[in-house]
Protein 1
Amino acid sequence: QVQLVESGGGLVQPGGSLTLSCAASGGRFSIAALGWHRQAPGKQREPVASLSNTGITNYVDSVKGRFTISGDDAKNTLYLQMNSLKLEDTAVYYCYTTLYGVVYWGKGILVTVSS
């Protein structure tokens, strides 16, 4: 059974940094696509960043140059390094993986950017 568990969220001031982690288990993630979505209060969930099984990354325009997605196959862990955080980055962040055509989601972790 595929499980994804996010960690690393919390409260940070504008301009600060956080690194989210997503520990995956129950699958062969070296062949999977992975990524992060987020859902801000009162808004729909939106894609943030993705990482293909060939190492190709994509980012939503609002985070380009500030966020970096990466993965560690040996640890089965996905990361999202977030720098220069803004108030509008406040959201619940969800990691996901697409494995054999099935999408699996973590439960999400809250990131709050506030002064």
Protein 2
Amino acid sequence: QVQLVESGGGLVQAGGSLRLPCAASGRTFSSSAMAWLRQVPGKEREFVASISWSGRTTYYAASVKGRFTISRDNGKNTVFLQMNSLKPEDTAVYYCNTRVDGMDYWGKGTPVTVSF
């Protein structure tokens, strides 16, 4: 069983920064890739970033590359999404995700609102 809990969302002005932590429970965290996705009401959930179990390999959506950074601390069972130079189009609910033994696990999400 894996539980994911996101936090750190909130209201920020365009150009600002936020750091989203996702705390994970379960013994498999340090051996599992992790990802962040986001969703706007009425739209499909979209990929934002992912990180390998070791942290050595990361991938980013084109829309966030160069502005967002994903990282992890396996000692603390936490993955982070550092978001800089935020834009109004980054407004969404951000979800943490991992897949273990073929099953997807999701947190409840944390909302991010970027004002003009």
Protein 3
Amino acid sequence: QVQLVESGGGLVQAGASLRLSCAASGRTFSPQYMGWFRQAPRKKREFVAGIRWSIGIVYYGASVKGRFAISRDRAKNTVYLQMNSLKPEDTAVYYCAAQSTTSDRYNYWGQGTQVTVSS
């Protein structure tokens, strides 16, 4: 079983930066992808960024491209989301997710961490 634990959320002003971390634990953790999603109140969950675990190819949602950066530390089983130039519309609960090699979708999820950006 894989467990994902996010950290690093908080309240910041517009224009500030935050870095989220997601530590994964499990006996044999080797996903295909790890990613970040977010969900704001009364909105659908939105893909933010993803990374191919083995080779590091990255993907971004249109609304964050150029401002956010995903990275991973394979030795620590940790994925990061560096968020720069934050906007009030980035306010949401951010979820870490992992897609195992036997799945065609993200099938492990963290509990989420709140990010609030004030104007």
Protein 4
Amino acid sequence: QVQPVESGGGLVQAGGSLRLSCAASGSIFSINTIGWYRQTPGKERELVAIITHSGTTNYADSVKGRFTIFRDNAKNTVYLQMNSLKNEDTAVYSCKSVVPAGPWGQGTQVTVSS
């Protein structure tokens, strides 16, 4: 399994939007189930969104209606579109292949300011 690379994090005001990218080389990535997770200091890592190879998605209740996970298999990339961001969305966001299990990426910091 290839380590994915996340990008797109940054500082944004509450109510704003960011799009995160999770890219990995190799055609296998395009048929994997991929998850986006987030973690803040002192808290357990939380599954935010997940997408299967066929495009079925699922979301944590805290982000439903605000976040969208989608994939571009031709680019071996999975995206997380985050809208209406809140202060509590501040975290390090990481992606990984869930099925089959793969390594974590390095993560990308998202900071939402008031």
